[in-house]
Amino acid sequence: MSRSPSAFVVFAIIFAGVSVLGFAASRWGSGDRKSLEEWGLAGRGFGTIVSWFLLGGDLYTAYTFVALPAFLYGAGAIGFFAVPYTTLAYIFFFVVVTRFWVVARNRGYITLADFIRDRYGDRRLEVAVALTCVAAALPYVALQLVGMQAVLTQFGAGSQLVGGSALFVAFAIVAAYTYICGLRGPALVAFVKDSLMYVTIVAAVLIIPAKLGGWGHIFSAAGVALARHVPPGALLVPPNMYFAYGTLALGSASTLFMYPHSITSALSAKSRQVIARNAVFLPLYSIMLAMLALMGYCALAAGIHLDAKHTSLAVPLLLESLFPGWLTGVAFAAIVTGALVPAAVMAIGSANLFASNVLAEFTQERPPGETHHAKLLCLAVLAAALVLVLTVPVPFAINFQLLGGAWMMQIFPVAAMGLYTRWFNPHALLAGWACGIAATTAMAVASGFKATFALGGSGLVGYIGFYGFVLNLAVATGLTLLLRATGSPHGVDRTVPADYA
């Protein structure tokens, strides 16, 4: 157990309260629970405040608390790509997601793949997008479980057995209330989750630098420690990594709001104005993100020594060593609830996709059958993510999310560009998608599941998703020109201009 009994007591009380709150959400709202729109989108009725907390709960997760500081702890300044990435993402959110919300509301879409089906009239492209989103969400859900595991292991005195058992318990609780309550469960818990995050961040900024001798000493000590790493890290991004930094930021920003959980949260909003307001104010979270990222440097300055396989423990160990016991309990509760909310929404969004865009074609079922399938698939997604965490070793937990993001970049021409143009041939888009997915996966395997790859072995280092996207777009463009020249069928667009108004 953690060295401070008070930390465990505070953590247990908060976690129990959050669990009860999650199940209490079953009484929130009066919609038909057998409807997939009610279970998966909360009846599309959330206002600005609820959407603020839900979107914040989705986007600022265990990635924020655990994986990003761990990335800086292990690799240095390259990890700061997340700060410009989350800022740029809201431009995409304001411009693209608001347009998607309009057409989705007008045509009753529940998922992104519903739009693909009508826009291109191609069943294969619809399934490709649905399966890509589900596959990309799995490592993102796994990242949340990594965050839980990093905290729960501390309460087991470092025992992987005790920490693993606690992880199973936490997994069972989130799976149960998600199955019962649908999107309303994580939406209600998000209020507590964000409040805990604010308390933890403010406390960390006030307490930790003061105890470590100030930011000047922190940066100096972190720079010395990073130089000793293998491979060495640095406080500033080296020139040979500029392109990698830029493509990581730009690529991640362009995909963040196409993930199943982002689309699910956006479609639960009751109006376009709710989406627009949140696009304006949610960037405030990026300030918090920058502060938390610096905790990776603080862990280095505090003399916390971890090998590459256990960097996810950097922040939990830092908080435990410098916070008073009760505040450690609050911080650990913030990390775990910061994983519960997005894990639940990600599982719901993935289940919606699989039930609506893959299974529905074969089962021909509609509510309540479709909703029942979505609930079961939600549990399956969470279980698959748990297996991924326990069986697939990666140097930094953030690589889980970056690999998923690289896959998501390959649907950008189909989805984001498809909202503005119908120029591309669906067959060409499918071929481009296949080439992009294959190239991205091959680069990930060749680099040991790192997010960056050097072309030609020692050439330009860039984000694997970006390289895959360039190939994808080139194939889709070239084939579209060829198919147009030969007069090949262009597919049927069932949407009309009024749908986008």
What does this protein structure show overall?
By secondary structure, the chain is mainly alpha-helical. It has one domain: Sodium/glucose cotransporter, CATH 1.20.1730. Helices cover about 70% and strands about 0% of the residues. The chain has a two-stranded antiparallel sheet with strand order 1-2. Helix 3 crosses helix 9, helix 5 packs parallel to helix 11 and helix 10 crosses helix 15 (about 295-300). The N and C termini lie far apart (about 55 Å).
Quick recap:
It is built from 22 helices and 2 strands.
Entry keywords:
Sodium/glucose cotransporter; globular; mainly alpha; two-stranded antiparallel sheet; 501 residues
Please summarize the sheet with the most strands: 2 strands, antiparallel
Q: CATH topology, what is it called?
A: Sodium/glucose cotransporter
Annotation field: number of helices? 22
CATH architecture level-2 label: Up-down Bundle
Corresponding CATH superfamily: Sodium/glucose cotransporter
Shape: globular
The amount of beta strand, in percent, is: under 5%
Distance between the termini: 57 Å
What spatial order of strands do you see in the largest sheet? 1-2
What is the N-to-C order of secondary-structure elements (H for helix, E for strand)? HHHHHHHHHHHHHHHHHHHHHEEH
Total number of beta strands:
2
The average pLDDT is: 86
Q: Which blocks of ≥5 consecutive residues have pLDDT under 50?
A: none
Query: Structural class, from secondary structure content?
Result: mainly alpha
